[in-house]
Design a protein that fits this description.
Blueprint (H helix, E strand, L loop, with lengths): L3 E12 L2 E12 L3 E5 L6 H8 L7 E6 L2 E2 L5 H7 L1 E4 L11 H7 L7 H14 L1 H5 L10 H13 L5 E5 L7 H16 L3 E6 L2 H7 L2 E6 L2 E7 H5 L2 H8 L2
Parallel strand pairs: 3-8, 3-9, 6-7, 7-8
Antiparallel strand pairs: 1-2, 1-4, 4-5, 9-10
Length: about 240
């Protein structure tokens, strides 16, 4: 087992009186794809939003490369090497594909590095290169998802968090997006994947966590979760 790039210990997050996360702990080993599966409202988006610094925990620790990061502002967390591609894509529809991508490298002044990161994104998603001057809002759902992932990649993250990347996509596009996630991982990017499409997520990840109403109820290798009767019944429709 490789060293952990990310470790969460006893994380509690509230929305007012609502307890969204009730003391979750998880580990993300460097170089792997780890997935969190769960129904709507389970706390999946809350988890990645808190790691990214968009929400503040009331208790617990988030360690990135053994450094405590909870309490840091989100832009500093991004500088350290964590990037989030949010649920719902949230691209800028009035900006071109290239302008959207450049928003992902807003904090970098190194033009050569930005150019290099852009090449990596275009190699991964050739369609974005073809549509470089097109407005983000005119892209198909699948292309917008590629743009959201590409934008998150523009800060050269060592940990990429993807929140529901397959949501609302046609099956053929889902396959494309998952292929690109595997490709990114092969290039050395560690990935924390949040997915409702549990079967797909578990097929490409090494380990999975099942989140239910703010608690982790199962944690196992993805293979074992795929064959677990409770997981099959709840998430795989078997």
């Amino acid at each position: 087992m490789s060293a952990n790039i990310l470790e969460i210990k006893d994380l509690h997050v509230n929305y007012g009186a609502i307890k969204a996360l009730k003391g979750i702990s998880l580990k993300v080993p460097k170089g792997e794809i780890i997935t969190i599966i769960g129904a709507n409202g389970a706390g999946k988006t809350t988890t990645v939003s808190t790691i990214a610094g968009l929400l503040k925990p009331i208790k617990g620790e988030i360690l990135f490369n053994d450094k405590k990061i909870n309490g840091l502002p989100s832009h500093e967390i991004n500088h350290l090497g964590i990037s989030l591609s949010p649920e719902g894509r949230r691209i800028f529809p009035e900006l071109t594909v290239l302008e959207n991508l450049n928003m992902g490298s807003y904090s970098s002044k190194d033009k050569a590095k930005i150019k290099g990161d852009l090449e990596i994104v275009f190699n991964l998603f050739p369609r974005l290169k073809e549509r470089m001057k097109q407005l983000g809002g005119t892209l198909s759902g699948g292309e917008q998802q590629m743009l959201a992932i590409g934008r998150a990649m523009m800060s050269s993250p060592s940990l990429l968090m993807l929140d529901e990347p397959s949501l609302g996509l046609a099956p053929i596009l889902v396959d494309e997006v998952f292929d690109s996630i595997e490709e990114l991982n092969k290039k050395g990017v560690t990935i924390l994947l949040i997915e409702q499409n549990a079967a797909k997520a578990l097929q490409i990840s090494s380990h999975g966590y099942v989140l239910e109403t703010g608690n982790i109820t199962l944690s196992d290798s993805s293979d074992k979760l795929l064959s677990n009767s409770k997981v099959k019944e709840a998430f795989l429709g078997v």
